[in-house]
Amino acid sequence: MSGPHILRVERLTREAFAPFGDVIALEGARHFPINGGTTERFHDLATIDVCADGGRPLVSVFRAQPRALPVAITLMERHPHGSQAFIPLAAVSRYAIVVAPAGEFRPDAMRAFLAEGWQGVNYAKGVWHHPLLALDAVSDFVIVDRGGPQPNCDEIPLDGAWALEFAPACASAA
Questions:
Q1: Predicted confidence (pLDDT) per residue in 52-65, tens digit
Q2: I want to staple 134 with a disulfide (CB 3.0 to 4.6 A). Which of 72, 77, 87, 139 is the partner?
Q3: Domain ranges in the chain?
């Protein structure tokens, strides 16, 4: 019997994640002072796409339990009618992200990323992703996604388990 498929984890960057959506982070973001110079606004950090077909934005909080390593990746999900943003709240540690391009699911196109607690992500409409993967501690996230009359979550089981392999630069998370 063969072991699980291996998915190498890479550091999360805007450039690497661009095919799947947006990285929500202050570093490198457009910003300017507001409110008489007492506040810095980091502007337009993600493309929220939830309003088609009678959709509306929802704001929720998810509390993720830490996953024991190694994590078995056995399913993926997508939201066909809207984007979904995950924005860490205070004291969030690192978390893992597993994604695949929108459209017909292809396991060979999956990629994995390690996000720091100061980085959020916004999955573009239809992008396949694994449910939230907190690594080190219970972690709270503000979620901005779609409410509306249509079901907006498709799940598929994977044919066999996939294991995350942390690159040397990411190994301290494992």
A1: 999 999 999 999 99
A2: 139
A3: 5-173
Identify whether the C-beta of residue 108 lies closer than 8 Å to the C-beta of residue 4.
no
Give, rounded to a whole angstrom, the gap between the first and last alpha carbons of the chain: 25
pLDDT tens, residue by residue, 109-152: 999 999 999 999 999 999 999 999 999 999 999 999 999 999 99
Which has more pLDDT, 91 or 165? 165
| Fold of the domain spanning 5-173 | Jelly Rolls (2.60.120)
Nearest-CA neighbor of 130 among 83, 77, 170? Answer: 77
**Chain Cα centroid distance, residue 53:** 24
Whether the pTM exceeds 0.90: the reply is yes
Angle at 52 between CA 51 and CA 58, to 5 degrees: 30
Within 8 A by CB and 6+ apart from 153, the residues are: 77, 78, 79
